[in-house]
Amino acid sequence: MKSGLCPAQAVLNAPLNRPGREAEGALPLVESALTVMRSATQRDMNISPDTTEEDLAEICSRPTGKDVHEELRFWKIVEERIGLLITDRLREEGIKNMKEDIARLTGTCSELSLHRLHRELKKLETTPAAAKGKKDYRIQWLCGDSGAPDGSDLIRISWRSKPNWGDVPFLLLDASAAPDIVEKIWGGGRDRIVVHDVVQDVGRSLNVRIVGIINETMSTSSIIGSDGGSHKKMTDQGKRLDRTRKAISAVSGLYGMGRVVVGTNIALRRTINSGWVCPDNVDWCHFGAMRGLDMFKHHAAALSVGRMEPPTRSIDGLAAALTYDDDTPELPYDSRGDGLDREGEQLKVPTGQQTLRHRSGETLIMAVPRYPGKWAALIQKQYREEELLQFLGRLRPVYRDGEPPVWYAMSSIIPEGVIVDDIIHIKDFLSSRQGNKFAERLWDAIRRTGGVVVPEILHKFCPDLFSSKDHAERIMTRMRFTGNPEEDFRETRGFNIWEWTGLDGRERYAYVRGSVPNQEVYLRESLTRFMIHGSSLKLVRDSVTGLNLLAKPRSPDAVEESIGSREERIQAENADFNSASLRLIEGSTVHTSSSEAEMRFLWGRPDDQGQAYTDFSLSEMKAVVAIERTKREIASKKQLALLQTETSTHYTG
Description:
It is built from 20 helices and 18 strands. By secondary structure, it is an alpha/beta fold. It folds into 3 domains: 130 residues; 302 residues, no CATH class; 93 residues, no CATH class.
């Protein structure tokens, strides 16, 4: 397999020479392997209500084996392919023998007999080969970048199982299925599949607004990456993670009157929340586990980070399983199995064109990664675009009335068919109306204060962002937090406004994110904690109305529980702040562009000769700390998995 040979062909060519089975090569060894594997998989079938405790203990004491079902499938594929190759060999021998018979009988037999022989020969010659393709790519040796995460080689196995209930009448309903794939799996011809368009234009039927933040892929590798890497790569990853966190904080603030759902893959979800306290009006879900979730149908906004992009080896395996029995099976994109192209360069998915529709009626052509093979591209779409549509569907935009929710898509991929309202750059999204960084600074500060916007509290919580109470108040004013309940600005629409009388008799105002529960008690405790005294606290503007009253937080899932409680994450974020501060102070010089600017540092490694210093904020360095911790955790899990593999018991029969 390492040399690129078809394993079934290699077995058939092996000179085992069993009496009476010389033409089958080493097929008897394959049959023996199948016997062993079937015995291992049928162990539990010997258990019945009549099984004694002694027999049950004996069964449980037997070695369990490792990847037994996968190895059984491997030998089944090899056996099946050998049978097809033998059929083709017999057909070729038949063609050879018939040609010899025609040559020998020409001139010595009747024309009618020769005509019959020629007709039989033509039938054999036009019969399609039983074994399709030069080799069966349901089995492929993978190494290098295409191998296991720990660097070891892999054997990829893929197959197409026969569905249950295939011999009885049934009705299959699927709103996102690809008819070509359904036909491959269920068989019976395309006429059995009826595609019914419920609406003529799906995009216009959705009660939702879509904002595409498409300047970056937001892939896992672009934020976490592999262990090691250059100084620049590490700093770029930290800045990208920091922007992602601030985007979540911004959406949380802009839609503070309701709740926000964020969707991404599990790895990014863990990294984003590592040493970072998510706003309390944000719920999470992850790609691959979104179907059927109904708890976000009243949420005000959604933010997706990245997209679901299976590795090339998975796409190749699925394409092989779907097309191995076609007359011309689709070849894997990674045909060498090592992640390199024919010239030995890193294999990259080529770009194709994708058309986006704007609500104004204009169209935008985008270059997106797309596999060249028909089936590979279809499978990629079923994973990538359909999973994004599944995320959008959590807002239930088809059945939703009233104020449309907003989906912020942070990815270079947006599914075709939907209608986009705006396309922006992440830096523009995080900037204020004046184009400065006051917005991202204030949204992050509001997250850290738990949703309370009072100058003194902002300064005390975030001295790295605001040099004084007056500084915080100036930023609030420039961001339209003016304290006037009659004014309706987009920046403050998600906040309730509370009024109280200060000790000096002056009326004071506090903004509290609308989603914060028990606001009066929470605000009083916050004011008392920072020695801000006054009286007559009252609510003068309530921002939570309509469907936002129905939005409820999601119960913690397994990922949420593994990340830790809110109190644990607060402690972890404080520890990361300390680590990031020490790192910046030890290896940098402080600089700010003006008295209004966020504190920033020129930072670099002393051992990085010739490396330019990087302009860093404290939150960006804190993101680097989180990424490094994530990489250590990933490396530790890989090492543990490797040790478990080395010490596991393999079934040998």
